[in-house]
Amino acid sequence: MKTGRALCSSCDIYCQVKTEMPKNGGLSNIRVKALDTRPFMANICMKGVHAPEGFINPNRVIHPLRRVGQRGEGKWEQVSWTEALDDIAERLNRITDQYGPEALSVSTSQWNTQTDNGTARRFMNLFGSPNWISGVSMCAGNTAAINRLVYGWYPYPDYPNTNCVVLFGHNPKPHSWTPVYNAIRLAQNRGAKLIVLDPRRSENAEKADLWLPLHPGTDAAMCMGWLKVIIEEELYDTNIVVNWTVGFESLRARVNEFSLSRVSKITGVDAELILEAARTYAKTGPAVIPWTPVTDQQRNSTSAIRLMCILRAICGNLDVKGGELLHGFNPDIISESELELHNLLSDGQRAKQLGSQKHPAFTYRAADVLRKPAKKIWGYEYPNLVNGCFMAVPTSVFRAMAYGDPYPVKAFFVLGNNALMSYANMQLIQRAILTQDLVVAVEHFKTPTAQLADYILPGDAWLERNALSDSFGWTSIYRTSQKTVDPPGECRSVYDFWRGLAVRLDLGEYFPWANQEELLDYRVRKVSSSFEKFANKHPIYMQPPEYKKYERTGFATPTGKIELASTVLQKFGFDPIPNWRPDPPSQARWPLKLFTGVREDAFFQTGHRHIASLRKRQPEPLAFLSYSDSKDHDISDGDMLMIETKQGKVLLKASIRDDMPIGVIRVPHGWWLPERQEGDGTLSGAWEHADAQICPDDPDHLDNEQGIPHLKGISCRIAKLD
Question: How far, in Å, CA of 307 to CA of 194, rounded?
């Protein structure tokens, strides 16, 4: 039996797992198991266990395919990698000659392309295009960028030593965010408090010391209420506030606008419960407020994220044991931020980044203001945290692709990212893709997005490659993944794709590593002669944590302090103090609220629907609603529903749940049916079931500073279908 260690990238957590394979076996014989089987230590879920089943699926793309017939018609021919890359490079050159390098846009999902090693951004910066986007624009990456505006880094929770965990809409479970679930349970076993803010009576709400059932999308208002209590009762860390913050009095004035009665009215939570929760958080420290995808996806997202940053900071929970740590870079490893070469993208091309003028918060405009302090504190001008900083605004990119405004975008590369279903306004995205002169997908399967491509190139999977992970630039903790089996057919790494293009476009000198293995050797060269030796010795590589580093260095902000009042946002004409932007007035025509963007346990984002073992657990697309709403609309469990917003409509089966709040419909993210016929008619069921087509991206549904969509509280209606 051959055994090894790997990082499962079936989701973005990257659990370290054990792999087992008979000496003469292949992918079908691999077993994926937990490294540690003790209770609350088995960091592996069903997606990891069943991953090999997906990699041997007969519908996996294992050879390069070129479209023959009309785009979306489903007709393909097999070609060689050489033929494909030659043609792609030639066509890209023609597009560049006519429209400029900014006419290339690239969309990736980092968890699916963990072998990137920063080379996508490296290629883009050398090529001259600022129009890189990713799903992390509204899932952790944007949070990292907003955290940088407050204190210059994205903190990491110290679960083993914390006394209090606060979950804003986040619901880690044994089969979803498994390590976080285990860490929280262990903390509770030690006596740590758990505060859950969630419209649903979720699994973690059931286990919480305090549950605050707030209305969807009201997280920023709730934080204002907490700060009102903490500031008024002087529960904050005076030393931090006096010596290490700017803008405290302005913050106090803003918070005073939010009486607990006002916050209670906005959020739907009793004022006494808000008071108790705020006091518990402030007095029970050190405490953590872990990242949550919920605040990433609200019209008040920037304010909500900043307010959580402020809560951490003024309560003394920042960069302390048991609080949230500002890791910085590990000096022993060459980081992806260094490899990306952002300094080689000219000022003129950075200025063309789509969406940056109107929504600058995670674009180059914000990053350039932070260049000097970042260099001073962290050693790099462009620390790309969660691979989500200094990107273009997705909705602006898709509008440029669809309508040529403010300039044409004519080539679209999508890598490990089902872009059609991964952002808001699916109608716009399809139009955008169909207007392109060149569409290239690097994928495992013919996803709805790949079905609209000119080329589908076969990518490798996490059992088929070595890898090095630092949580997308978030931490200084590196973990290694060891290749278990060779990839099937002609599947290749993402690095091979970028290098192959670079060589053909006269950029080969910047890609001196012949393959990914040489690049990994290069990244660990300060501490080991090869990645293989490094990985054998170091499943995890880290340095002892240093607390309160800011006392020695200051913060990586323009003022060198925690910016309660943001000088960066003020420079761009935004309110420097967080605020609350009320929802548009409700209309009788749209009586319910849609809560979407949340993954199901068996799947991650739009993936895994092709894995039979997982589909048995959740075979059909469901919509979740309360018993009260089901009675009001004469709906029974299993009835087919039409769920409609101003943007569009989807068809889903009703699942009546006692944990759902009245007036809220929850639609899971990412449903399509791989078993259905491909093509632009239904795109394998995507046009019937995908939540992206009911998520709008008009100004009322965008966060002003970031330009990301509001997915937590969209007005909607439902109807039972015969």
Answer: 19
Both 254 and 336 in one domain: the answer is no
Q: Does residue 219 share a domain with residue 84?
A: no
Tens digit of each residue's pLDDT (9 = 90 or more) over 92-151: 999 999 999 999 999 998 666 667 899 999 999 999 999 999 988 888 899 999 999 999
Do residues 140 and 293 lie in contact, with contact meaning Cβ atoms separated by under 8 Å? yes
Burial class for 722, CB neighbours closer than 10 Å (0-12, 13-18, 19+): exposed
556 in a structural domain: no
pTM, 2 dp: 0.96
Q: How far apart are CA 384 and CA 336, in angstroms?
A: 8
Tell me the CATH number at 503: 3.40.50.740
H or E stretch covering 311 = helix 301-314
Q: Is 12 designated active site? A: yes
Owning domain of residue 531: 65-143+332-541
Are the beta carbons of 595 and 664 closer than 8 angstroms?
yes
Within-domain flag for 56: no
Which among 12, 460, 583, 680 is annotated as catalytic? 12
Which domain CATH number covers 693? 2.40.40.20
DSSP symbols for 414-478: EES--GGGTSS-HHHHHHHHHT-SEEEEEESS--TTGGG-SEEEEBP-GGGS-EEESTTTT-S-E
Residues 218 and 265 in one domain: yes
